[in-house]
Amino acid sequence: MTDESAGIGPRLRVGYVPGVQPDKWLTRWRERNPGVPITARRVGDPRPDLARSAGDDGFDVIFLREADDAPRSAPPGLLRIPLYTETMAVLAGKDHELGAFDTLSAEDLEAERWLDPVDAVTATPEEVSAAVDLVAAGIGLLALPLPYARSLSRRDVVARPLEGVPTTRTGVAWSPAREGDELIDEFVGIVRGRTASTSRGAGEPPREKRTAREKTAAKARARAERGTRPAERGMSPARGKRRR
């Protein structure tokens, strides 16, 4: 964004949900755009703080979480590109026997006691933390996206990949009012893997290939402009090969 009236130059502000690790994208941005500061802040749900126009307070771009079976079309009021499906995890107290396994399925844990589900999409960080406190106390198990579970850095619980349960996915989103914003387009391109050599505006667009007839006509025009005939350049008009 740019707020010229306030004397502030271009900058980009990113909001992201717990479990998303934007560091690599921030690093690439700083390498390619050293003159445009970028900041990032983790929040429970960044959508309410999304800037609807350049100069507004809030985030210019956000990383959000949604159910993996949510419509592929963007939620109302957002432009959104889905990124990746998250592996789910089961959380238990650190001394629970499931810590001996690398991966578990829902069927493996049918006999276990589970806490009431916590919706990682809508729950606040405080609600998730309270549920994990119950897990640490041995009250029951809890399912969360694995990246979210790891971001909690809790030493009193153990997390293992869990199969056979509904998954979540992440996406990058921005306001429809900011469609065509060059800074946002550049950042989204970085997130999607666009390299510096393929960034928008980098270099000239590729030239269309010409047919053999077009090439021949172009050569004839060039010779005519120079006023030079083939024979005068040591070429045989009949055969078109250079004389030895």
UniProtKB/TrEMBL annotation:
Region of interest (Disordered), residue spans: 194-244
UniProt feature, compositional bias: Basic and acidic residues: 205-232
Keywords: Activator, DNA-binding, Transcription, Transcription regulation
Domain LysR substrate-binding residues, every copy: 9-194
InterPro entries: LysR_subst-bd (IPR005119)
Keyword Membrane: no
GO cellular component: protein-DNA complex
SUPFAM superfamilies from the UniProt entry: Periplasmic binding protein-like II
Domain of life (superkingdom): Bacteria
Protein name as catalogued: Substrate-binding domain-containing protein
Organism: Dietzia cinnamea
